[in-house]
Design goal:
Elements lengths: L1 E5 L8 H7 L6 H22 L12 E6 L4 E6 L6 H23 L4 H4 L14 E9 L8 E5 L4 E6 L6 E8 L9 H11 L7 E11 L5 E9 L16 H11 L8 E7 L5 E7 L13 E5 L2 E4 L14 E5 L9 H6 L1 H24 L1 H6 L1 H14 L1 H7 L4 E4 L5 E3 H12 L6 E6 L6 H9 L4 E3 L5 H11 L3 E5 L5 H4 L12 H15 L24 H11 L4
Parallel strand pairs: 2-8, 12-14, 17-18, 17-19
Antiparallel strand pairs: 1-6, 2-3, 3-7, 4-5, 4-7, 5-6, 8-9, 10-11, 11-14, 12-13, 15-16, 15-18
This protein binds adenosine-5'-diphosphate and magnesium ion.
The site of magnesium ion (MG) has 4 residues, from α2.
């Protein structure tokens, strides 16, 4: 039997268009073909488990091999295979209609945005090959093996094949532009990137290992070089896992990093499907360093580590893995932002993280405080950026006092300072420093008056201060050097200069001359005996305006 035919297309020849569309992301052809092989393998395993296939499953590893001379890459599986009819249905029609649909839908879209985001499946093979062959034997008894061949036009050829073993070989005849894919390290690199956690063993070449032979002597033997860990941590049940398992998995993902502080195992199946593990790394003051560490998977196939729209911005500092078949990976990023599943996933992750932090705070406050330097950054980032997170985090967000180095929740702190630091308008005035060395005399002065000073010197604290002021009623924060202490917390007592107006003006003139600047907005006062001879202050409001301007208005 031999048959020639034309793949029915209602647009023009699709192959040149596929090539053009996916130009920058050619390597995903391997991800697509290997995951098809894995799908086919899992299907036959399932059929066997259900008693619908009684043949011998055999060695079900998926194998990837390169033939440099023939310039071919072969992907072989022992999955369900296909009959000639099935090839016509699944390859010629279905896979093809997917590709056609892709073109129809995205004809007008910005092509640079969709490159690599659309799983073109089987047809992505034509990005690197000028001829593709399928040799396949179905698991169904009494069926004839089939051989399909297509040279990247809409014409295909199908004939009988000799294959007796169940399964499928996909043979790619690599085109002249894609010879890089005949290099071992290139293929191994792609497999390690996309297939590292696929659920069926993937073999690429062999590896030499030492083994004890029958005579008890060490000998070198060649073993299958297995690329993947078929049961990554996130697919396991949390109850079966120990702390060490989470740490080991973290080390596997980020070999050079310090151990994480703690982690959250994600696991939902309604109303969307999501599994994963998110780790809190130790964060120092540089926030940018840690972004883009979360890896996104779909059924254990690596998709991307750009999770910008899937994970809330403030949680991008976290590390780990998210796996969801419900995240639409095959569409443009701008679409992703408005996708309702993505929004739900976003909310779910935010809630999980907030709950985990709250649990930690409640169950081990001391441990929580010790980690605050790192956690505090996430928490403040989240409180500033996300209303929902703020609502939960306000209960465990901490403030540190310079006076006693202790940590307080905002509520606790307000209760603590209420008796001494409430001004005449019933506003609770929180004093803070963001540079202890430079502001030490002011801090001392405040302490002498019996006031408490907060340490707010982190990279997000200037924004965080604004968040607290806007959320808590009758709360105001002032930097210790913003004014003399008596006025920072204005209790209505008169603080008057002991100099006359004209004496003060004279001193202003002296300053202007000395600084050679007569535009200076200066005010001089001589106050009743204080612990400091001279105090120079800059009003809180003016300073904040300046700081805002410097940080870009944020
Ligand atoms: P998808 O995987 O999303 O269904 P593909 O274009 O990757 O789309 O594949 C199209 C169809 O071809 C598959 O659904 C499957 O029925 C069939 N197929 C592809 N590769 C194999 C294989 N190695 N073994 C058996 N069937 C396969
Ligand atoms: Mg596929």
């Amino acid at each position: 039997m031999q048959e020639k035919g034309t793949i029915s297309v209602n647009t023009e020849n699709i192959f040149p268009i596929i090539k053009k569309f996916l130009y920058s992301d050619h390597e995903i052809f391997l991800r697509e073909l290997v995951s098809n092989a894995v799908d086919a393998t899992q299907k036959v395993e399932k059929l066997a488990a259900m008693g619908e296939y009684s043949g011998d499953l055999g060695d079900t590893k998926v194998r990837v091999a390169i033939d440099k001379e023939a310039k071919t890459i072969t992907i072989s599986d022992r999955g369900i295979g296909m009959t000639a009819e099935e090839i016509k249905k699944y390859i010629n029609q279905i896979a093809f209609s997917g590709a056609t649909e892709f073109l129809e839908k995205y004809k007008d879209a910005d092509t640079s945005q969709i490159i690599g985001k659309f799983g073109l499946g089987f047809y992505s093979a034509f990005m690197v090959a000028n001829k593709v062959e399928i040799i396949t034997q179905s698991y169904k008894e009494g069926t004839q093996a089939a051989h399909w061949e297509c040279t990247g036009t809409t014409d295909f050829e199908i004939k009988q094949a000799e294959k007796t073993e169940r399964g499928t070989d996909i043979i790619l005849h690599v085109n002249e532009d894609s010879l890089e894919f005949l290099e071992d390290h290139r293929i191994e690199g792609i497999l390690k990137k996309y297939c590292k956690f696929l659920p069926v063993q993937i073999v690429f070449g062999t590896r030499e290992v030492s083994e004890k032979g029958e005579d008890d002597k060490e000998q070198k033997v060649q073993k299958d070089n297995i690329i993947n860990n078929t049961e990554p941590l996130w697919v396991k049940t949390p109850n079966d896992l120990k702390e060490e398992d989470y740490l080991n998995f973290y080390r596997e993902l980020y070999p050079l990093s310090e151990d994480p502080l703690f982690w959250i195992h994600l696991n939902v199946d309604y109303p969307f499907n999501l599994t994963g593990v998110l780790y809190f790394p130790k964060v120092k003051n540089d926030l940018t360093l840690h972004k883009d560490k979360i890896q996104l998977y779909s059924r254990q196939v690596f998709i991307t580590d750009e999770v910008k729209d899937i994970v809330p911005e403030f949680l991008m500092l976290m590390h780990g893995v998210i796996d969801s078949p419900d995240i639409p990976l095959n569409v443009s990023r701008s679409y992703l932002q408005s996708d309702s599943n993505v929004k739900k996933i976003n909310n779910y992750i935010t809630k999980k993280v907030a709950d985990k932090l709250h649990d930690l705070f409640k169950s081990d406050r001391q441990g929580f405080e010790e980690k605050w330097e790192s956690i505090g950054l996430f928490v403040k980032y989240g409180m500033i950026a996300e209303e929902k997170f703020y609502d939960k985090a306000k209960n465990f967000s901490l403030l540190q006092s310079v006076n006693d180095d202790k940590y307080y929740t905002v509520e606790e702190y307000l209760t603590k300072i209420e008796p001494t630091q409430t001004d005449k308008d019933q506003t609770r005035v929180l004093l803070y420093t963001n540079e202890e060395g430079k502001q030490d005399t002011y801090i001392q002065s405040a302490k002498n008056k019996g006031y408490d000073v907060l340490r707010l010197d982190g990279p997000l604290d200037s924004h965080f201060i604004g968040t607290i002021e806007s959320k808590f009623e009758k709360v105001s924060l002032k930097r210790v050097d913003a004014d003399i202490v008596e006025r920072l917390i204005d209790k209505g007592e008169k603080v008057e200069s002991v100099l006359s107006k004209s004496e003060e003006e004279k001193i202003v003139e002296i300053f202007k001359k000395a600084l050679n600047n007569d535009k200076l907005d200066l005010k001089v006062e001589a106050l009743p005996a204080d612990d400091m001879p001279v105090t120079i202050t800059l009003p809180e409001f003016m300073r904040r305006m300046e700081e805002m301007a410097k940080s870009g208005g944020g």
